[in-house]
Write a structure and sequence with these properties.
Shape of chain A: globular
Helix content of chain A: 40-55%
Oligomer: homodimer
Strand content of chain A: 15-25%
Number of helices of chain A: 16
Radius of gyration of chain A: 21 Å
Mean pLDDT of chain A: 94
Structural class of chain A: alpha/beta
Distance between the termini of chain A: 62 Å
Chain lengths: 381, 381
């Protein structure tokens, strides 16, 4: 029997908090999944990721099938053993990365042929092969294979891709074959067209999945568009199953999406921003490359529990970033992932105590104490 | 009163083991100093460096004067506070890096004018300014300013640079002015000419320093040349003061140099090799880029106390290195610095128990179980 128990401990409006219970551990929801594209959350030791409170990480089927290869990961004991992360792992199906990274893509009704962005070698993904790869990786939460379109796209194209994804969802489910101690999630597609999103959601529910993702969002559209689609789509998804908004997002995106009933998120923002000199803080984002930080002896956030935020001066981190030193990216990624996990813990607590609407307002007020606002509050160095 | 107590607990031939006692902590000798060029030991958190057993790290005057600037480091509380390393720090004088990195160098009797390799800006170093910078950094062990020549060079050039370095040594000492709780080391120059090395050593001893470095070696000459110069030079340096062989070296270089009475070493090898996919092990060096490691589930060294060596499979590290993931460099640097600190601890123990000659033989025999030899011993994956 596949799928995991999902218990909702509290709701507040459409927002809910609870836990997904897996044999590899509990996933507290709403959950943020750090992205470990190539079987590593960039610049982080796995123990650090865990210590920040992450219950689950995401890894990418597309990258891992190309290098080191799914069969090799299986021979080395599976992805948990390979990357030293004994806790739950979600893998995407490869569909999104094939669209965004591979060259010479050719989609047919059966699957996608493409060339590797690494060495140009030819590969093919079908729903069956995607599920097989995710099984070789020993993923806990397996995603159906889908076709992602770049938006905007003409309605006939959006509809065709959505219906193809539905068909591939059905084949993914057959290939998954109710794998014990695993879960399979379907993916709602349909671009920014509410009618197509609803057809997709209803079709997926009819097939029946252990959880439901909303895909094809946060690909450049305005936040309002994304939230409207969530408003229209989330109610069509079963209330007793986890909802996962793929590739989202900024702290503000997450706050707003949780208010619309989303339980799970993943995003490269905190890790990527960390490699580009940006620090997420309670008071907004700091650009550590800015010369204004050069003489600051204060840390990023003296009240943080994360050593990267609490123990190193901004002046030092500014120096590391300017000098291109790896430790700069290590510290900022650490800080940013800590920020995101604290964001989620605070969201869960606010929902549990029935003050989520107030929490959203309070968070936005804190962020309004932006980089410039905060600078004005600080004594000159 | 400047300088630190140096106690020699045991000798074995010319090799000796003991400790330099500084207000910031004891430096067990023979000591290996990890290199923290830009105020960071690349890819390592400072706590990790300490936990491996490093008592002291080295930082570079040339790099830090250019970025972030010595006065800025002083404003931020000094180098220990800046880089979160509360233990002893040795800074070089800038002479070597001016020679190897700066452009448009112009040496005169008073000092060196040069342009920054970062932005082309003009700078000048003199013995007085070098000592001032090292004081601003709050270095514990300060190096005299010297002129380093690229070898081979004609004897008149070698002699001129050696005599200039002697004169700069005298000016460095005057500028240092017996700073309390600090030490000033002189630097023996003279290329590969024994007679000039002896003149340099005797001149330095006459000036009187808290310790004596041998500079201008390990710049491409054969190991035999370096060891011969040590054979000729070390006896001319006071037995009761620490001897420091700058920029050395391989594990074998260190073993052989300790046998000739050297107490301190620094080298970028373990950190640089870590960023280039190389792992130092008890059985020689492993090139983790080699495809042979792709399917290895064994770690680098299951008996190591270092998590990087003990807990991650070679197959995973191979993957990280091939994929250009930062964690690969982080793990290999960690492994390599652990190897070097264990090397030094074993050297100290062997001298203390009077079996240093045997220890050298045993170490070399282990290394002879080279990458290929070890591969042959392993069961196929």
């Amino acid at each position: 029997m596949s799928g995991f128990p999902f218990t909702i401990a509290a709701t507040d409006g459409a927002a809910r908090t609870g836990a997904i219970k897996t044999p590899r551990g509990e996933i507290r929801t709403p959950a943020f999944m750090p992205v470990g594209t190539q079987a590593t959350v960039k610049t982080m030791y796995p123990e650090q990721v865990r210590a920040l409170g992450a219950d689950i990480v995401l890894a990418n089927t597309y990258h891992l099938m190309l290098r080191p290869g799914a069969e090799r990961v299986a021979r080395l004991g599976g992805l948990h053993e390979f990357m030293r992360w004994p806790h739950p792992i979600l893998t995407d199906s490869g569909g999104f990365q094939v669209m965004s990274l591979a060259s010479l893509r050719k989609v047919d009704a059966d699957g996608v042929s493409f060339r590797s962005h690494i060495d140009g070698s030819e590969h093919r993904l079908t729903p069956e092969r995607s599920i097989e790869i995710q099984r070789l990786l020993d993923s806990d939460i397996v995603m159906q294979f889908d076709e992602c379109l770049a938006l905007p796209a003409p309605r006939p194209d959006v509809e065709r891709a959505m219906r193809l994804s539905l068909a591939w969802g059905e084949r993914s489910k057959a290939a998954f074959d109710n794998a014990p101690d695993k879960a399979l999630f379907g993916i709602v597609q349909g671009g920014d067209i509410a009618e197509l999103r609803l057809i997709s959601a209803e079709g997926l529910v009819e097939i029946g999945f252990d959880g439901y993702a909303v895909g094809g969002l946060a690909v450049g559209e305005p936040q309002a568009t994304m939230l409207q689609i969530l408003d229209e789509t989330a109610p069509a998804l079963p209330a007793d199953r986890p909802r996962y908004l793929m590739g989202v997002g900024t702290p503000d995106d997450i706050l707003e999406s949780v208010a619309r009933g989303v339980d799970m998120f993943d995003c490269v923002l905190p890790t990527r921003a960390g490699r580009h000199g940006l620090a997420y803080t309670r008071f907004g984002k700091l650009n550590m490359k800015n010369a204004r930080h050069a003489d600051e002896s204060a840390p990023i956030d003296a009240e943080s529990a994360c050593p990267a935020a609490r123990d190193y001066s901004r002046g030092y981190i500014h120096h590391l970033v300017k000098a291109g030193e790896t430790l700069g990216a290590m510290l900022l990624t650490w800080n940013n992932l800590a920020y995101y996990q604290t964001l989620m813990a605070d969201i869960r607590a606010a929902i549990a105590s029935g003050r989520y609407a107030d929490h959203i307002l309070a968070m936005k007020a804190e962020w309004a104490r932006s980089e410039e606002g905060r600078a004005a509050l600080q004594p000159p160095a």
